[in-house]
Amino acid sequence: MACDIRDPEQIAAAFDAAERAFSLPDVLINNAAANFPVPTEDMSPNAWRTVIDITLNGTFFMSREFGRRHLASGTPGSIVDIGASYAWTGGPGFAHSAAAKAGIKNMVETLSVEWDHTEYRSTDWFRVCSHTRT
After folding, report:
1. What DSSP designation does 27 have?
2. To the nearest whole number, what is the mean pLDDT of the chain?
């Protein structure tokens, strides 16, 4: 299902279509990212916003919709978020992407705590299976 992950309405419509065609997905893999190296001092506000919007906000909107539907139906679900090592170490030209990936890492940890009472399972692939709750 195609959608612009920056748009929560398109995400909801994509989930509706997937549920009609198949059923509620058991697993969500968040792997969409925007990234292009640029020195921080040369980065435009639009470059910053675009990477944050696609990478961090898009991952949040997808995870939220997936979580809402599984919480409402009382069914288990798993989310896998693909990360990048420079979320910890930094990397020249990647201030925007590193900030977004670090935000995703912390979102994964928060969702693991917030949805801990459910059958939700979250794995971030920043480190191999570092945060998993069942």
Report:
1. E
2. 86
